[in-house]
Amino acid sequence: LHSHMLLYTQLVDSGQCLYGLGLLKNIIEAQPKLSLLSLASTGISMLQPPSVLMVLMARHKRCVFGQGFDGGNVSEMIGQYRSTMYLQVVITVCLYYLRSYYPRLPHLRLKDEHLNDNKEVQVVAIEVLVLVFTNLSSLVADSPRGLAPYVLDLLNKCKVQKCVLHCLLATVHAMRLPGNTMTNTKNRAVETKTFTQDLLDYNNKGGDGLCLASQETYLSSAMDLTLALIKLEDALAATKMDSFPREGTATTKTGTSSTHYQIGQTIPAQPMFLRVVSSALGQKHTRHLHSAWLHLFTSALPHMGTALPNNCMRLCSLLCVLLEEIPKYYTTKDTSQLKSIPPDYALTLISALTTIVHFCLLDPSQSPLTVAPSATSYVSPSQVASSTGSSASTSNLSSTVGGNSQSGTQAHGQIWFNLLHVFSSVNEVLEASLDTTGQDPLTCARRTLLSHLPRIVAALLSL
């Protein structure tokens, strides 16, 4: 869970870090195409003297693997990074910053300002990566063919997806308890903390206790970075490269933990992705963040590929559970739970559920969200809600279901299956996996969602 974390061994000049990251951010924002193409085509070997940056990159890599900063063969270090481009340096350094923390060591003499500055460096590093990957998505489609294989190799070499998913999962896990519970030493002592959990608590605490605002800012930026990576993966898959694992199965292997990264799978097909979304939506004290998580999921719908049926099935089941829990908070005398429920929470859940159902059931020409290889073909859920009325949605849904109905015998069998599926256990649905090998993802998702339609209607009627 915390294998991605890096620790500083001495105080860092956060001011210089913020200045350098801010300068990179301004350059990319001003000229995104020119700056990224220049970074991707300029090698660090052109620097005079060429060995300085190469040796620094190699020494930092040695530190990541616990071998110390000093020592090593300098000639081997230079040869290892001779063909490295500046774009790889930018991505690598930003990945270092966003997962680096201060240990609780007496000789560092840390103050609250050092911890706060490090949080700011983490957020700015994520913002730079969001700019890089967002603009790379459009460049991959418009630039020569040589750029797409380079970007794909760069993502694998830097292990970008693995690092980002680990950061998301670790942050959600650190926010699993309410703020008043985490600052309560009596309740906190009941749970045995590991070294990494204690380290995160130390870095996330300021002078007034746990800084939930900074955690939420970091989490929101990490969600933006995840969405940018998902769109970039889809843009790379649209180039029809044989080496990109687009047509593989999206099922979870038996015995594979949902906290382990699976090499060769896109982010939507990773068990970690579904685990972090379901875990975040299961936290009742962070309901104000559920809209951001649902926005991440609905935004990624056109780019999920073979993972679409499995992800839609599980999230729809989870949304049904959340909708059914809402009336319970208003019927009981205990109103303490109502404080953490936003006024528009029910509308947020219904809007996300409507977006998923529309995307899977409507024809591509009628659906607000369309399956497109381009990473820029996203329509936000707010646009879906404003452009799709309730009466039009009902008519489109009826015509789509009727147009896609099969023969009489198959239709009757589907109806009986739907009626029986109403009484199935929710836990069985959440733990089940779909094998979509060799099938059209949208067609498979449509059939799966139709089988869960009675469950969705029952959840809506509970309101």
Outline the structure in words.
With 463 residues, the protein is mainly alpha-helical. The protein folds into two domains: 1-42 and 85-241; 303-463, no CATH class. Helices cover 62% and strands 2% of the residues. The chain has helices at residues 14-30, 32-41, 51-64, 74-80, 86-98, 112-142, 147-158, 160-174, 179-182, 185-190, 195-203, 212-238, 271-281, 290-299, 308-331, 345-361, 381-387, 390-403, 408-421, 426-431, 441-451, 453-461, and strands spanning 6-7, 100-101, 205-206, 209-210. Strand 3 and strand 4 (209-210) form a beta hairpin. The longest helix has 31 residues, at 112-142. The two termini are 37 Å apart. The relative contact order is 0.08.
Strands of the widest sheet, in order across it, are 1-2
- Count of individual domains: 2
Using the alpha-carbon principal axes, give the shape: globular
State the separation between the terminal residues, measured CA to CA: 37 Å
Mean pLDDT: 77
Secondary-structure element order, N to C = EHHHHHEHHHHHHEEHHHHHHHHHHH
Number of DSSP strand runs: 4
Helical fraction:
55-70%
The secondary structure category is mainly alpha
Biased composition (Low complexity): 386-401
Domain DOP1-like TPR: 1-363
Pfam family, one: TPR_DOP1
Region (Disordered): 386-406
Topology, please?
Elements: E1 6-7, H1 14-30, H2 32-41, H3 51-64, H4 74-80, H5 86-98, E2 100-101, H6 112-142, H7 147-158, H8 160-174, H9 179-182, H10 185-190, H11 195-203, E3 205-206, E4 209-210, H12 212-238, H13 271-281, H14 290-299, H15 308-331, H16 345-361, H17 381-387, H18 390-403, H19 408-421, H20 426-431, H21 441-451, H22 453-461
Helix pairs in contact: 1-2, 1-6, 3-4, 5-6, 6-12, 8-12, 8-13, 12-14, 14-16, 15-16, 15-21, 15-22
